[in-house]
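QA checklist item 7 of 12: single-chain prediction sanity check.
[x] sequence parsed
[x] length recorded as 356
[x] structure emitted
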Amino acid sequence: PFTIFVGTKIGCGSAKQSQASLVCLALAFHYLCIRRRSARKKTLPAEEDGQMIRQSCPTIAIADSGATKTHWCFLDKTGQAKEVVTGGLNPFMAGEKLIRDCLEKDLYPFIDNTQVTHLFFYGSGCADASKRTVLQAELEGFFRHAEVEIESDLAGAAIALCGKAKGLVAILGTGAATCFYNGERIVRRIASLGYVLGDEGSGARIGIRFLSDYLREGMPEDLREEFAPFCPYPLPEIIDQVYHGQQVGRMLGEMAVFASLHNAHPYVRQVLDDEFRAFFAKQVKPYGELLKETELNLLGSVAFHAQDSIREVAESFGVRVGKVLKGPMEGLLAYYRPMLPDLLRAPAFDEEDDFS
């Protein structure tokens, strides 16, 4: 209503009216600037308990990022955690604008970025130093007062599973990867090669097996009808998606969910057994003597939901299985909580945040 009133006065009436209109215009502009600034700085209340979501004391941030989502966790000096989920920040898929929009639109309303003193970011696609340059710059620009450390998702898995102990580590989710962790860093790894050349045992490879058998009528009849909703497209479109689609690994990985729904069926058990045997043969056995020294610890949705099958195959290869986790955040929190007194020793920052 304020701006409409100004618009009706400009350019008409007496000199006094014109002068008054200019004054109103100036006041309106000032009013809108204040509204805009307060909107940026507003604190959003929680939906149910009335607690403030934005933290007002120094925190550290831990992030676990994949292709589709990023799980953020903010810890204050008491160890209390606030969690936020945003879109994925894989630097192979997310450019500068997408990263910035994710931080400013999806994350900023729920946290005070000026109070973060350290960020430990573990993500897919972050093993390549050249690829994480843009991500590093955007994170440092957003968390202006934080020390930002970016490592691969495999490094995050190693810390979550082993802490400060040495061990063999594997990720079995949409993709697959293995490494040997000496308690401080990854010292050896076998190339996973992606689902086209490798990734044995991964959700994508399991999905390929289901899809191929379904299209060639190699899947048992009693399962074909159950699998049909996972593949609702005509053959030419499926071929086009597999060879030219943008998120083929994700599509194939989603088909692997079928295994958890029918894991008692002999056909499904055989597919899992075949894939896990290929995984141990190609990505675990090459560690040789290290397998006698330590256990194999696994992380990921496939590892978690099919751990009984994995343990059976592991035993046949003479490999001992240790921890199995669905995601890394629980282990990462356990690792960083004891460090909070040292990490949060620095004073809080009072500078106002302002995106300009």
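[x] summary fact logged: Residues 1-16, 22-53, 350-356 have pLDDT under 50 and may be disordered.
[ ] second reviewer sign-off
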